[in-house]
Amino acid sequence: MKKRQKKSWYYVLAVVLLALAGYHGYQKNSFYKSAYNDELPARKSQDEGKEYQSTGDASLLDVKLPQRLDNQTVRYKAITVYFNKYYRVPNCVAYELTSTMTSMADSKDAENRADYKFERDHNVKGCPDWWEYKESGYTRGHMAPAMDMRWNKTAMEQCFLMTNICPQLDEMNDGEWRHVEEAVHKWSRTAGRLIIFTGPIFSDKLERIGKYDDIAVPESFFKVIYSPKQNRAIAFVMENKKMPNSWTNYATTIDKVEALTGYDFLAALEDKVEDVIESKENIKDWPAYYPRR
Length: 293
Description:
- The protein is an alpha+beta fold.
- It is about 30% helix and about 20% strand.
- The strands form three sheets. A seven-stranded antiparallel sheet has the order 1-2-3-6-9-10-11, with helices on both faces. A two-stranded antiparallel ribbon has the order 4-5. A two-stranded antiparallel sheet has the order 7-8.
């Protein structure tokens, strides 16, 4: 009788332990499910939050480039870089930004930009070193901004790789261009998920900087933003100089950016849908954002 009771006690204990393990697994899976679907607020755990993964079809990040254009595609944790070894800057940088990512990036536990330094990616041919921009008159301008990557340590480290950098005049980088970046950051909260493309536009008369004068200086920059949930898009083009007007005045269509660059964005969409989205521009369709001056 005592042996039977002892076996029963072990059985009950085993059931309880299995139940607790199952509950823990459910809690963990629930977090990842909520983060993946972006329907529920993510838990504030630093460790779990930093393992946030893509929320949708990664093919939306694909960009079709002209065949004549030199390119090496590098897929980092949070950004996709299309790098040009002859210009020594990216052709384009693509990434997604969700409301969950933004919440984590804005939290008190987010990564601190001051802890990160610009680094060369030695695995990418033509990638410059950080010091090659020194005394050039240009800042190291992030294509995927650091404010959008603060949700994850690896994302921040890779954001500071020179494959994500272009020469930008400080008056542009810290002016109306920054206001566009801040607007996109805010828009992701209401849109749920944004697909973002950023890159340089070059003129025929190419200025170059660096120790060997081989880093191309863009004449202008573009930013393309697509909201899958609202099925709408908007784009911006700004010259690489101090812009005299408010950032909203530089809104344009994706069609215009494609005409300037020869790139094909959102090719993963059905042609009829893509044609409609890329031909429209209405800044009033996007939530109002008033930057601090």
